[in-house]
Amino acid sequence: MALSKDEVLKIAKLARLELSPDEVEMYSTQLSAILDYVETLNTLNVEGIEPTAHAMLVPTPFREDVVTQDQTMDKCLANAPAREGTFFKVPKIIGS
Amino acid sequence: MELFDLTIHELHDLLKQKKTSSVEITEAVLKRIRAVEPQVGAYITVTEDLARAQAKKADEIIARDAGAWRAMPLQGIPLGIKDNFLIEGIKTTCASKILNNYIPPYTATCARQLLDQGAVVLGKLNLDEFAMGSSTENSAMVQTRNPWDLDRIPGGSSGGSAAAVAAGECIASTGTDTGGSIRLPAALTNLVGLKPTYGRVSRYGIIAFASSLDQVGPLTKDVTDSAIMLQALAGHDRRDSTSLNLPIPDYAKALAPDVKGWKIGIPKEYFVGGMDAEVAKAMKDAVETLKKLGATCVDVTLPHTDYGVPTYYILATAEASSNLARYDGIRYGHRTSSPGDLTKLYEKSRSEGFGPEVKRRIMLGTYVLSAGYYDAYYIRGQKVRTLIRRDFEQAFEKCDVILTPVSPTPAWKIGEKTNDPLKMYLSDIFTINVNLAGLPGMSLPCGFTGSGLPIGMQLIAKHFEEEKMLRVAYAYEQATEWHKRRPKL
């Protein structure tokens, strides 16, 4: 399965990655080769086979819906690239 | 032998006999790090001051209390931690520029357990960025070299963890294994590497790569140390919903040098063309040794073996693309200096922060999950995963453990596979299916090539039967000397 440069750009957009023209070229070639290899799976008949999402399928454990505090706000904000008071600071989202 | 060459259990015995102290051991290892680290490059961060303080505290506990610490074999033992384990206050990079300056606000549960057992933390070990790779060449931080031949890779992704133990830069280390990332580097550096059953060790506080496959485990100098580390790491954690609440056996009790009547399964699919002749010979010899110890070898078949790598590169990349969506430059991690609007902030921060292999996998994972391709790739991959799991279930009807090689070749030259991602992916051909099936697997030393490169063999057991694996490994180890060799540095 050959991936065109347009398809690579479309995937990059979905993945929120900005690629240079060289990267687009490289990933187009490499991802096509990997997908060709992955397509060996098409030789298998998987009709009627249940998919496995997790190797150990156990029911999701539940806990009581009570508020606990594992972290302080300061610790949660300590790694923020930009903050103001008790907020994460981001560029303006709505146009003026 | 120097202190840094010894194992956890040997050092524990010396501590009990008051023949050494944690401070003395820790200083010996720190000195070793200073001496060989410029060649080996195993560490991203060395936490010298913390290690000294913890060693001093361990010695105080040992001096004060003659009783309780004796049952804690990690008390005062200096360990290295893979740099995808969060430890509060210690920089954790995952070998990625995107987490260049990340200081975790909490500690991974399994790391907490090691600390509670009295372990001393020497620092954070190198890996392939986000644990994606088989050679540790994908690290954005440092080039780790194989202590057995500095021109060669140490394996990956836990390459720093392997190189550090092999070079005496820590007594044992932790790793993570999503497709072979503990077992492959252990095999290429003459160590014991153990990937427990999926669900045995909590992943809370481990930086996620592929959540249905990731598992934590130890890299050690012998099987006894492996059992000690597994004991300390294992356990249920309410913070990891995939960690199972099952009793934990006493793994030390599994270490009996007797496998009379045990059935070792040999899957024919793992002994086919393309394998290095010296690796094939070492495997044959290992089988003979186990037979001499009284085990019976039976032929088993795992017919879907060849489909493991393509299945893995659908499922692991799909999960990775989802897990790595969190790196957005907003709450932590790298943020671009020229954001423009919000979308550009995401795109630029991520593109500047992630390296080429991580981007490649995010792209592949995004593609297989995208509309129109989801059924053809992702669902099909999950179905093949079922077939792979069933192969093992059927094989284990005939045997107690399965024996295979870990890697088709010994350690390869730095740069040899970096231009061909597919070639690199195929290095994991013998380890990946164990993750897909969620089984425990371990790698242990079983020989050397003529040029002195280590060769490893893999043991695989049923879910939660780590003890069987450890038992066979221990019996084999007692009958051989490979694990006693150390590289010359």
Q: What is the quaternary state of this protein? A: heterodimer
Write down how many β-strands of chain A occur, each being a DSSP E stretch of 2 or more residues. 2
- Please name the fourth-level CATH homologous superfamily of the domain at 3-259 and 443-484 in chain B: Amidase signature (AS) domain
Task: Please estimate the helix content of chain A.
Answer: 25-40%
CATH architecture of the domain at 3-259 and 443-484 in chain B: Alpha-Beta Complex
Largest interface: A-B, 52 and 75 residues
The CATH level-2 architecture of the domain at 5-43 in chain A is identified as Orthogonal Bundle
Written as H for each helix and E for each strand, in order along the chain, the element string of chain B is: HHEHEHEHEHEEHEHEHHHHEHHEEH
Helices and strands in order:
The complex is a heterodimer of chains A (about 100) and B (about 500).
Chain A: H1 5-14, H2 21-38, H3 73-77, E1 83-84, E2 87-88
Helix pairs in contact in A: 1-2
Chain B: H1 8-16, H2 22-40, E1 43-46, H3 48-64, E2 78-82, H4 109-116, E3 120-125, H5 159-166, E4 172-177, H6 183-188, E5 192-195, E6 215-220, H7 223-233, E7 263-267, H8 277-292, E8 296-300, H9 308-323, H10 342-353, H11 356-369, H12 374-395, E9 401-405, H13 421-425, H14 432-437, E10 441-448, E11 454-460, H15 466-478
Parallel strand pairs in B: 2-3, 2-4, 7-8, 7-9
Antiparallel strand pairs in B: 1-3, 4-6, 5-6, 5-10, 9-11, 10-11
Helix pairs in contact in B: 2-3, 7-15, 9-11, 9-12
What does this structure look like?
- The complex is a heterodimer of chains A (96) and B (489).
- Chain A is mainly alpha-helical and 96 residues long.
- Chain A is 34% helix and 4% strand.
- Chain A has helices at 5-14, 21-38, 73-77, and strands spanning 83-84, 87-88.
- Chain A is flat, with a radius of gyration of 23 Å.
- Chain B has a domain at 3-259 and 443-484: Amidase signature (AS) domain (Amidase signature (AS) enzymes, Alpha-Beta Complex), CATH 3.90.1300.
- Chain B contains 15 helices and 11 strands.
- Chain B has helices spanning 8-16, 22-40, 48-64, 109-116, 159-166, 183-188, 223-233, 277-292, 308-323, 342-353, 356-369, 374-395, 421-425, 432-437, 466-478; strands spanning 43-46, 78-82, 120-125, 172-177, 192-195, 215-220, 263-267, 296-300, 401-405, 441-448, 454-460.
- An 11-stranded mixed β-sheet of chain B has the order 1-3-2-4-6-5-10-11-9-7-8, with helices on both faces.
- In chain B, helix 4 links the parallel strand 2 and strand 3 (120-125).
- The mean pLDDT of chain B is 96.
